Amino acid sequence: MKKYTLILVILCITACINTPPPIPVPQKPKPQVPQKITPIKPGPSKKLTEPPILQINSGGHMAKIKDIFFIRDGKQLISASNDKTIRVWDIQTGKTVRMLRGQIGAGHEGKIYAAALSGDNQWLAVGGYPSRFGIRLIHFPTGQIKHLLKGHDNAILSLNFSSDNTRLISGSGDKTARIWDIISGNTLHTLQGHTERIYAVAFSPDNQLAVTGSDDHTLKLWQVSDGSLQATLEGHDDKVRSVAFTPDGHYILSGSWDKTIRLWNGKTGRFIKVMARQNLTVDSLSVSLDGTVVLTGQGYGNGDCINNIFSIPSGKSISTFTKHNNIVLATAISPDGTTAATGGGNDQEIWLWDVRTGREIKKLVGNGKSVWSVGFSKDGRSIAWGNTWEQESMFGYGPLEHSFIFQSHSDQFGPKPGPINETDFIRAIENKGTVSIQTQNNKVHPTLEILENKSVKHRITRGSTDGGVHESLTLSPDGRLVISGGGTGVLASYNTQTGKKEKEFIGHTGDVWGVAVSPDGRLLVSGSADQTIRLWEVATGNPLMTLFYGTDQEWVAWTPEGFFASSTSGAKYVGYHLNRGEDQPADYVSVDQLYALFYRPDLVSQKIKGDPDHKVETALDRIGNIDQVLASGMPPLIEILPHAQHIHKTDFTLAFKISDAGGGIGKIEYRIDGVLVATNQNVRSEPWAMARRSGVIRQPLSASDGKRQVSVTIYNKDNTIASEPVTTEVTIDDPLKDAPDLYVLAIGISEYKEANLQLKYAHHDATSIAKTFHDRGKGLFRNIHLTTLLDQKAVLPNIYKTFDRLSKTIKASDVFVLFIAGHGKVIDGNYYFIPQDALYENADLFKKIILSDEDLVTQIQKINALKSLILIDTCFSAHLVKNQLARASTRSALEEKTALDRLMRSSGRTALAAASSEQYAFEGHEGHGVFTYALLQGLKGRADSNHNGLLSINELCDFVRFEVPKITEKKWKYPQTPVRLTQGDSFAIGCTEENAGCGK
To answer: Which CATH number fits domain 368-549: 1.10.10.10, 2.170.190.11, 3.30.428.10, 2.130.10.10?
Structure first.
């Protein structure tokens, strides 16, 4: 049996990045290339019925919640929303654990207005906006659509199952209700008689009667067996929006916009009394399973937003809940009768609270918030926004609270930490010269007025088809345009001289509350109730970038082409809805699953600039557009098989099944605590042979002592779309628990065979790093092993052989440090390291003799390292004067950082990287490259921020990220900020000089 020890991988690359040749460069052949295979079990081919629809997944609902239900065991909650999604929530964690999606379209099509769950939890009925889709009857355990119930001529507004789970009743905007047979999907009876829309339906507990409530102010009682009308219940003074039977069938309760709850005889429909009143309309009623209390929703009216619990039949107030700040249309009481659930408010949250006391228990909500204000920095390089409403003003509803740098003299692209100084930003412009703008009442209003010398020159009035009102306004800096945001995402510019519309800015799906124009008049920023901030080109109306910024400070920004930038976990917030037909569940692909192709912060930046060098266009020509990539097919489904949770050795086998989801089967990645530890690419390998025989893949893995998260990710056959990782947990009990060894592999190249690639400090940096890790590791590690590959020894065969040798001796509990210094380059957004003997003769040959990021990740993967740190110092050489290696357009620092970031994320290891200029590389600092100098200073003790004598990985990263920009700003007036990726827990890497031998 193999014994493994702890490994820390520290990869530090000091390299000078060069521009690629202009000749198209083919992909380098790999020793193990995925081939077209016979799938384990061929999946059905899925075709896109319509173009993909980009959607935000904030972790919660983004539009009105229409219905909520508890699962029978009370451990989960189902919610349905106007945002066209159904969520299943885990009550204990407060997180979404499942989403159900169906066929949707543009605008309102696909919005969910009503849902119902059968008592046995087998069936979920969903209906909504009028369309060809009807009511979806979903088998809830599998998510498959059993029937499409068609017959209504208008929106589905209410749904309810019979207690025997055999029938469904629906109310519609077509003024009818229908009773459906669940097994056949046929209409049993059409209930006609109401003169307005039917928003409320219910079956009696014995399934003999059904009740309907309508906007015609009445209820009607029907015989279920033949659909005959038994009684019309009159008395409400306004629309009836909710009805319910008590579980014993004695009473019918009805809620109305007249703000009353009425009590009726459950057998005859005879009016008994007005049971209770509240200060807002009664838009929902939920009766407890024991029939003793009812929970009310609250809609419109004057007064505070209060949800009530009333006693049945007395109407006595039991408790109230006041945490919601807007209407609540969805209510439910838990099966045990102790917990109320109410869904609504401005942020579409679901509150869980105590039925008897009104005490809050938990809030289920996403990480998005409405954007109420926006602004541009005075230098035009940043935008800012705020999520707080303070006042009604079309020129700014609240403060600016966050900012985002999209263009800088350095390489920064992303949110700027720290508080906002409002004086640094330009908000909406109300007047310019003699031109000013206002609405007729200086508040949100249908009519915008353009004034010249304070006299109204033009009036622009909106109606129901173009936003209804003007909610946010600004003039352009030259006063030539007025830009107005309105309801339902409407955003348009108008000429102030003619009053005519010039451009429409199409993309927002919610009210546009904030607008501002850049100082040069080229860009427009807008903020919306759809929780996004968007950048537009004023002259064309074209969208450039959309930004979602979560309350957890994770963010993602994307272009219309699908290229995106994000924080470490931000890509989870955006994805593509893939319609598969009205009778099939829809698929969803998050942009994180497209990381390998579309994570390109450099191209997002280029798009904002207008793509002057056609780099976005070139990238699309190479990889295909987003529609083409998504049409390549869904990745396989993964089911990890049962396994021992506690393992008394470091070796174990992970067994799992794969189901082809229509896109075939490609590369398989295995990660432990986020670190890439194995990859299956060769279809002739033993795991694939076993899978063909048994339908199961068994992958041998190794891990160090402790609790470990083991995940599997599988790509489709084209390796374009990854599956969501499927994770399991194992606890490793290493019987040896030896102290770790430290292994350092340092590679440094100063003297290149190519005369134009000479460097000054690379070999010296590698030697110094190795020695310093040796000195600082004494006493902390059992043994320290150093390997250096300098100059002529740093060629690909030697690099590969060294990794192979080390992989056979390094144990899972050891620490492995990899340092590489030399030249690098970027091709198609990917990082390449140039070994010592590389000479450029032609594009094909050159790519075969340099080390790609994929090759580098493969080599690191051979080392059984779970604790890892990658340190990369890449210099960017703008001018190499001899051959085609030097001829190409100058690359930005952001391109280099993007390539390094992609390398780091692929390996899954904690990483720190810097992309520096050629000047930095040749001038250096104190006899080293700047990045290496900062590393050495940190390792000597300056990074010990808590003064405990130990140097941790996080302390070292923090120190270098602070020190490098300080040095470069002072020396070259150009701050270089390293990129950082943190993975797993921090750990000690050395002892300070003052505390040498600290581990003894």
So the answer is: 2.130.10.10
- Are 824 and 833 in contact by the 8 Å Cβ rule? The answer is yes
At 395, is the pLDDT very low, low, confident or very high (cuts 50, 70, 90)?
Answer: very high
CA dist list (Å): 229 to 1, 187, 194, 257: 78, 17, 11, 24
Q: Give the predicted TM-score (pTM) of the model.
A: 0.88
Q: What are the start and end residues of each CATH 3.40.50.1460 domain in the chain?
A: 8-12+738-995
- For the cut 80, the answer to whether the pLDDT of residue 847 exceeds it is no
| Segment 442-453, tens digit of pLDDT | 999 999 999 999
- With b for 16 or more beta-carbon neighbours within 10 A and e for fewer, the 911-938 pattern comes to bbbbbbbbbbbeebbeebbbbbbbbbbb
Please, are residues 376 and 525 in contact by the beta-carbon 8 Å criterion?
A: yes
Whether the Cβ atoms of residue 635 and residue 715 lie closer than 8 Å to each other: yes
Q: According to CATH, what is the number of the domain 8-12+738-995?
A: 3.40.50.1460
In which band, very low, low, confident or very high, does the pLDDT at 6 lie, cut at 50, 70 and 90? very low
Nearest to 534 by CA among 512, 503, 502: 512
Instruction: With beta carbons less than 8 A apart as the criterion, state whether 505 and 517 touch.
Output: no
CA–CA dist 363, 372 (Å, integer): 23
Average pLDDT over residues 409-427: 87
What the block records as the tokens of 962 is 């602070």
Q: Of 541, 474, 468, 550, nearest to 511 (Cα)?
A: 468
Range with lowest mean pLDDT among 330-344, 373-387, 401-415:
401-415
- Sign, CA torsion 237/238/239/241: negative
Output the pLDDT for position 892: 67
